[in-house]
Every structure is written in structure tokens, then in C-alpha cells.
Amino acid sequence: MVYLRLENINKSFGSKQVIRDFNLEIEKEKFCVFLGPSGCGKSTLLNIIAGLEQPSSGKIYLRGKDITSFAPHKRDMAMVFQDYALYPHLTVFENIAFGLRVKALKEDEIHRKVKEVSRILNIEDKLGNYPRSLSGGERQRAATGRAIVREPNLFLFDEPLSNLDARLRLELRKEFLQLQQRLRKTSLYVTHDQIEALSLGDVIAVLKEGKIQQVSTPYDLYNQPRNLFVAGFIGTPPMNILELVVKNEDGEFVLSKGNFSLKAPPKLADKLRKSKHEIIFLGIRPSALFFDNGKNESDYVFEGGIRLLEMLGEDMLAYIALEGGVEIRAVFSQKRREQKGRRVRLGVSGEDMYFFEKNGRRLC
Amino acid sequence: MSRAKLGAWIISIVFVVLLLFPLYIMFKISVSAPHDVFRESPPYFIENFTWQHFRNVLASGEAFYAPLSKSFITAIAATFLSLLIAVPAAYGISRFDVKLRYILILIIFMSRMVPEVSIALPISITFIRMGLFDTTLGLVLAHLIRILPVSCFILVSVFGEFPLSLERQARIDGYSRIGAIRKVVLPLSLTGLVVAGLFSFILSWDEFIYASYLTLAEPTMPIKMYYYISRGNIFSSATYAVIITIPVLIITFSLQRYIKPEYLSGSVKG
Ligand SMILES: Nc1ncnc2c1ncn2[C@@H]1O[C@H](COP(=O)(O)OP(=O)(O)O)[C@@H](O)[C@H]1O
Ligand SMILES: [Mg+2]
Q1: pLDDT by residue (tens digit) across B24-82?
Q2: Is the pLDDT of residue B269 over 80?
Q3: φ and ψ at A185, to 5 degrees?
Q4: Complex-level ipTM
Q5: How many CB pairs under 8 A join A and B?
Q6: Which has the least CB within 10 A, A62, A164, B113, B240?
Q7: Alpha-carbon distance A204 to A195, whole Å?
Q8: Do A255 and A225 reside in the same domain of the chain?
Q9: From atom 27 of ligand 1, which residue's Cα is the shortest distance away?
Q10: How far is B44 from chain A (nearest CA, A)?
């Protein structure tokens, strides 16, 4: 069942268009993440859905009802802002109770609800504190508590974890996941952090300059990127992207850059026979490359020297110079104790190769 | 104490002395016996203390209480009206982008670029025609000319610095825009409102030029003081000056507790 529908949303500030032809349908009880680099219009989109900004054109439907012209307080959505926006003159209790008091709930009901939410979020002993005496994580929990206590139509989260340090972010990410599984509420969550998106989202919409690039499950987003932007944006370290010239040598397609060349795999050759391409992009994830000792059944083998090594923890990231000035990144276990300058043979399976047209669209 | 700190102290003390010295002279005259003032080289310290000048002024009855109450009523009304007009105006202006905000403020300040003396006369002629001459309302309106730019300026920066997400949070939590302004923005901007109100009050309280053109039978305190100055009664004028200064001091000190910068801390960011 479609719960929230965004139809042809456009938004401009002056002459600057921030959101372009945005269409999206979100199912009930799904946790949907908007993922994109900063400045791509994520917050603007969330503000439009909340009613804090008016779209320049387009419609918003909630449970099939057009709510485009509704004021924020008529939409009954809860939002957690990036900076938490706690009321500084109110205690944590009163902050969480704020929305309930506006609705004029009975005092004992307010107490019951605030107590329950604070127990879930583990801030029971902070209820009497003012925001200024809370740590970053506690402020975040208080802001989240204020949202969930209202039992709203929709949750909106605008980069709620981005102001926390790495360790706390990890901890709260897990709490968010547990909370989501417990509440099963339709939510929109904005972030520029792909790991946050992949770990929390049921559905992820990737944005670039106000346009949707792809809407998929985390699994599909990682494994089946629809274009070059998504392929390059998802995954750390980022995917290797090589720009290659296509040549037809006696019915066989060869991809090359300078001295570096490889035969087009069958799935690409099929496509190249159907439509003409002079240039294509090849994408390979650093983790898809493995050491070929001659016994593996690699479809392709690249040889080169290790130019740079970076320790990432359990993994090691190597920059490997291939022929023709081509450089690729490969990730492997640090247990191999590779050295700079060593020559290596890297294998890759044809399945792990992504091909994109010149305009960025995925070919196969 | 480090030498830099000592230097800072010395400079501060010099400034404070320079600023307070005229005030001290004013106060000294208002409580000195005449023969301490009218002599070849008057002493720096108060030698023969007397409340006589204050007693004289207070004993003058209506001649003193009428201007006092007129000044109070005018200043309070001007403060109230200035906030009533400047709060919505400044809120609106503060929501434009910074460049436009700046231009609007400049336009508002244009009304202060004309010397008050040059518009006081046309205003008084217009007010005579409109029946506002020598009325409290007329004087209040004239005072708003000088007050509004200042109170708008203060409030625009107050609202401009107010965290937008806090106002938005209130709207998300169930208030209309007006409700969010009333319940969250204004209470949390109390410091700024107090400062703007304080400035409004003082700008009206010690105003002289408009009052001198627009009042006749019912003068304000500064006019009354000038009356004594022009007649050469320096004891009464010094006493009036002290009396005019007292409310300003009281207001400033009693409102000081609202002027605390940490009022919004902890609300936004980690
Ligand atoms: N009120 C506004 N006026 C003008 N430009 C704005 C306004 N709000 C956002 N923008 C611009 O719109 C773009 C998208 O902003 P935003 O939605 O905050 O991005 P994100 O949240 O993805 O980082 C940015 O380039 C920003 O400068
Ligand atoms: Mg943002």
C-alpha cells in the first residue's frame, strides 16, 4: 500500500533549482533513506514533506489524500532536526511532552507516555535535566523521544546522527535499527553517510543535484547500481572507474586505454553488437579484485606494481599501477603483508565488472 | 597580575573616569551648598552636603510632577508601541536573505538621516492642524520616528540569530506559525526584546528636540530642565538632570539579569 506519494515535486530558491521532477512512492511501515552528497537538496525535500517549505510545483499525497497545501501542524508528522532543536528553557521531560501538551492531552497520560518513551531510549534519569547539561548522545535521544512520543503519521529524520562522534554514531545507529524494528513506523531518513543508509534503509533513494538517481533496496543499490554516479558513490573505498575506447577487431570487441587493453566479456559484446559505443566506462569494486596465483579461474587478469599502500584496519588498500598509466585500487587482507613496489597479478570475475555508457547509464 | 592585564586595567579605569566625571559634577552640584559652587576654584569633593535643591524641586508641586508623569507616560507608551510595530516588522525582515535584510534596514534608517530639527517644525505644523499638538499621543508618534529604526535594527539581528530549527520544531510539534512565534520565538528572544524596549524607553525619556517643538503647556522633563538652564538656575537644572538619570540607571540595572548571552545554550548542536 502506498503511504506517501511525491508527485513531480520541483523547488527553486530564486533562480536556483534545488529539487527537480521528484517522484517517489513510499510503502507503509517502510524505512526510506534519502542518500546524497551535501547540498543536493535532501533537507529541502524533507522540509517540503513536513510543510515547512512549499514546493514550487508538484503534489504530496499522504494515504491518498492531497496534503500539499497543509500547514506543518495539520500534517501530524514528527521531525528530528540535524541540530536537535531542543527547547533550551524546558527540561528533557517538558521537551518530550511539548507536542502532547499542545494537543492538550491529560496530565497522567502525558506522564505515562513520556516515561515509557524515556525508558525505551534510556534517558529516564535525565528527565529533569535541561538540554545544556546533556551530552551529544543524550540530546539526540531526547530529540528522538520527542518525535516518537507523539505517535505521528510519519517520521522525518534530517541527518540525526551527523553531529556525533564515530563511536556514538555506531551505537545510536544500532538503537535506531532496533527502534525501527520495534515501532514499524513509516519513516524518511536523510543522510550523506552511505553506511548509515545501507544499514538502516528498507529502501534507499540516491539523490544528486535534486534528482533521483536510483531507488532500491540496499542490496540492489550495492550490487546493481543503475548509473555511474551511484556506482561511484556507494562503497568504500570507491569503485574503480576506467574510461576505455571500444575497438572492433574482426568481430571481436577490444577495450583499451593506451597499452592497457582487454577483451569485452560476452555480455558486453552482445550489447556492443546491438548499439554502437565508442567509449564505455568499466567499473570494478576494489574488493572484487583478488590475488591470482595461476590456479584460480579468473576471467581477467591484471598485472602491475603496488605504488602505494594504506592500512585500513583488517584490510589494506593498495594503489596498483597497470600498463598504460592506468591505476586501480584493490582491497585485501592485511595478513598478506604485501610490500610497496611488489609486482602482483590481480584476477577479477566477469560478473564483478560493471559497464556504463558514455552518458553514465549502466549498460550491463 | 601580568603587565598586559595591568595595562588593560589602567586603560579601563581612565575611560570610566572620563565618562563618569561629568556625571559626578552634575551630581555634586545637585547636593552642594551654593557657596561651594560659586567661588573662584570650586573643590573636587563635596564639602557642604545638602538636600535643599531636591527639597526645592519636590516642593514645586505640579510644576515638577506634571512633567515627570508626562515623561513617564510618553516613554512607556512609546516603548510599548515601538515593540508592537517593530516585533512583527523585524521578524519579517529577518526572514529575508542577508542582502535584502541589509537593504531594508538601510531604508528604515533613512528616516534618521534627516536632522530632527529640520523636520520637527513641519511636524509641529501638521500636528497643530490634526489636533495632536501638545498632546501625549503626538509626542509619542514623533518619538517613534527616532525609536523605530533602532528597535527594528536590534530586533532584526535578534530574530536573525534565532535558530530557525527551533521555530520549525514548534511548528512540527503542533503550533501554527503565529503560535510558534508566540510560544517559542518571543519567549526565547526575551533578552533581545528587553534590550530593544530599554533603548526605546531611554530614547523617548531623554528626547529634547521633538518635545521642544511639540509641547507647550505640558512639557517633559528635559524641557523643564532646559527651562532652568536658560534661566541660569544651575542647582535646579542639575537636580532635574539627576532625577532624569535615576530611572535610566534603575532600569538598566534591574534588567541586567535578562541580558545573559547563554540563554539559548544547549538547544541546538551537540
Ligand atoms: N532558504 C534557502 N534559500 C536559498 N537557497 C537555499 C535555501 N535552502 C537551501 N538552499 C540551497 O539549496 C541547496 C540544497 O540545500 P539542502 O536541501 O539544505 O541540501 P542538503 O540537505 O542535501 O545538504 C543548497 O545549495 C542550498 O544552498
Ligand atoms: Mg541538510
Answers
A1: 999 999 999 998 888 888 888 888 899 999 999 999 889 999 999 999 999 999 999 99
A2: no
A3: -110, 145
A4: 0.88
A5: 90
A6: B113
A7: 11
A8: no
A9: A39
A10: 50
